[in-house]
Amino acid sequence: MNYRVQPTAQVDESAQIGEGSSIWELAQIREGARLGEACVVGRGAYVGTGVRIGNNVKIQNYALVYEPAELGDGVFVGPAVVLTNDHNPRSVDPEGKQKRGADWEAVGVTVAEGASLGARSVCVAPVRVGRWAMVAAGAVVTKDVPDFALVVGVPARRIGWVGRTGVKLTEVEGEPGVWECPKSGARYEEKDGVLSER
Fold this sequence. Notes:
By secondary structure, the chain is an all-beta fold. It has 2 domains: 4-91 and 101-162, Hexapeptide repeat proteins (UDP N-Acetylglucosamine Acyltransferase, domain 1); 164-198, no CATH class. 0% of the residues lie in helices and 33% in strands. It has no helices and 26 strands. It has strands spanning 4-5, 10-11, 16-17, 22-23, 28-29, 34-35, 40-41, 46-47, 52-53, 58-59, 64-65, 70-71, 76-77, 82-83, 109-111, 116-117, 122-123, 127-129, 134-135, 140-141, 149-152, 157-161, 170-171, 178-180, 187-191, 194-197. The strands form 4 sheets. It has a 9-stranded mixed beta sheet with strand order 1-4-7-10-13-16-19-21-22, with no helix packed on it. A 7-stranded parallel beta sheet has the order 2-5-8-11-14-17-20, with no helix packed on it. Strand 21 (149-152) and strand 22 (157-161) form a beta hairpin.
C-alpha cells in the first residue's frame, strides 16, 4: 500500500487511492471512488460512490462530496463544503412513500483544475466551477462559474477575477480588458465575460 489511511477511516475495497494520498480519521471513501496521487482527505470528510478526483486534491475536514462529482487536478475543497447531487430533493414521493436510490437520478458538480471552494460553501448540482476559479467561504453556487472567476454570496455572483495564485487580479491601467496578478505579474485578457491567460 503506497498511501496512508488512518484506522478509523472507512475506505471501500473497490475504491482506488493514488500513490502518496492520505485519508484521515473518520473519513469515508465509498464504492468505486477514484482518488489520484497525493490527495488529502481530511477528518470526517465523505467521498461518494464513483466520485472521480484528480491528483493533488485537498478535501478538508467534514466536506461532503456526493456522487457523481468530478474534481480536477489541484482542486481545493474547504472545511464543511457540500457538493450536492439532487436538484429537487425529497424524502418521499408524491404519495408519501419513502424514496430509494432508484427513485431519482443523481446530478453532479464538476470542479475544474486548480479551483478552490471556500469553507462552508455549497455547490447545488448540476453546476460546473471553472479552472482556477475561487468560491468564497459561505457562498452558494447555483449556476456555472467561469474560469478564473471570484464569486461570493447567496446566490454566488462574480465580483472579480483571480489568477493561478488565488490573488484578485487588477485591471491594467490604459489597457481595457487586460488584467494582471499583483503577486506573479501574469497577465490575463477578458473578452465577452470570459477570462483567458495571455
